[in-house]
Amino acid sequence: MAQLELVGHSRISEETLEQVRSGALDGWSAQRVLEWGLDQFAPRISLSASFGSPEGLVLVDLMHRIDPDRTRVFTIDTGRLPQETYDLMDRVRDRYRIEVGVYFPQPERVQAMVRERGLNLFYESVENRRLCCGVRKVEPLKRALADLDAWIAGLRREQSVTRSEVRAVEIDQVHDDRIKLNPLARWTREDVWSYVKKHNVPVNALHAKGYPSVGCAPCSRATADGEDERAGRWWWEQAESRECGIHDGYEDQGSGI
After folding, report:
1. H or E element that contains 121
2. Buried b (16+ CB within 10 A) or exposed e, 45-56
């Protein structure tokens, strides 16, 4: 069987890659996508959970129901998260009895950035904000992915204009052609909250205060009626630029995001 060797990774079969390229998995349920991913890639697959949106916690719950022993979760601690996010991490650890791998930015890079551009550089320009996200989020993500062939995210098409073409399973060209699973791609906001309530899934306390999406404290606010779910993230920017870099690449792939 033909194989593709990923950069610094184990081999993934051409059959699996063709299955992903064809879009055949897009119509699958979230549970089926997760089962497929775990069967194909465990233990070299992990969920990236921000603990700032209910989607990641829904996926933790789904994975744990499928197979607690193969439920692997990591998060990025930027150093500027609200206390409610840290509280939720502890609740999830206690509820599911799982370890959450926490990755931090490199202190020397943070210090150099702040020394040169200030503590609140992100308000000054998109370039500065992207630099901050790059140092605090994207570089730690690269380390988190280093030993993985596939990763899982809570992206949904309905969340924002930048995510409207997300596929359930895709080849992540931004991160060395790893396989990326977005099992909730077709879910609506109502689907997510229905699952949360049905299974009593722990979520960030800031959701009850009008924050649909919680990131770094200075870059998140409550949203108004009629705004999209991520309107409170980097609200001073145009909607088309509101991604941190972790989930970049859709524009380059011609998806229109």
Report:
1. none
2. bbbbbbbbbbbb
124: helix, coil or strand?
Answer: coil
Query: Are 57 and 49 spatial neighbours (Cβ–Cβ below 8 Å)?
Result: yes
Which residues does the annotation mark as catalytic?
244
Identify the bridge partners of residue 220 per DSSP, sorted by sequence position.
Answer: 233
User: Two tokens at 26?
Assistant: 């897009």
Query: So what's the architecture of 3-241 in CATH?
Result: 3-Layer(aba) Sandwich (3.40)
Find the Cα–Cα–Cα–Cα dihedral 117, 122, 124, 126, rounded to 10°: 120
Specify whether the CB–CB gap between 36 and 70 falls below 8 A: no
Tokens 């596939």 correspond to 150
pLDDT tens for 31-56 read: 999 999 999 999 999 999 999 999 99
Beta bridge partners of residue 179, listed in sequence order? 150, 171
**Region of residue 48 (left: phi > 0; alpha: psi -120 to 50; beta: else):** beta
> What pLDDT band is residue 246 in, cutting at 50, 70 and 90?
low
Which tokens is 9 given? 């990774």
Our CA dihedral for 20, 21, 27, 32, rounded to 10 degrees, sits at 0
